[in-house]
Amino acid sequence: MDYETVSPQGFGKSLRGLGLNLVVRDVVKQCDFLAAVFDMKTHRVSAEFAIVTYGAQVFQLHSDGTYHSNPLLGLLPDNPPRGAGLEIRLYDTNPEEAVERAKVTDAVVLQEPTDKPHGL
User: Fold this and answer.
1) Where are the alpha helices (DSSP H) in the chain?
2) Where do the domains of the chain lie?
3) What's the pTM value of the predicted model, to 2 decimals?
4) CA 107 to chain CA mean position, Å
């Protein structure tokens, strides 16, 4: 599939398996960060939406403004905090290299890479 030219309807109909959609404040800034730190590829980038590929994986970014009429918003409290966050594991990225690249952006590194007992 050519992610640069696929129509929104064609892309939506093609999605299978597990899907990941990140709702972010600034799609363009998030795309720049994902490309710079994790070598992800971004496609169809706009202020409201982007397709992101990481190896063979594909996921989406949406601006939080695109969720203005989503019924999910009714489940969220009016004032933050709304949750602890989301962990996404990117197994094909060298963590030491990613942290070094992240340090030259305005990203916050919560923890330097460490070896874990379960082999990660």
Assistant:
1) 8-14, 27-38, 95-102
2) 8-91
3) 0.76
4) 14
Using CB atoms within 10 Å of the CB of residue 77, give its burial: 0 to 12 exposed, 13 to 18 middle, 19+ buried: exposed
What is the C-alpha separation between 33 and 22, in angstroms, rounded? 14
pLDDT digits (tens, 9 = 90+) for 22-40: 888 899 999 999 999 999 9
User: How much is the mean pLDDT over the chain?
Assistant: 85
Determine the Cα–Cα distance for residues 16 and 22; give it in Å rounded to an integer: 17
The residue among 103 and 110 whose pLDDT is bigger is 103
CATH of 8-91, one of 3.90.850.10, 1.20.1080.10, 3.40.640.10, 3.30.1900.10: 3.30.1900.10
Q: State the residue for tokens 């070094």.
A: 100
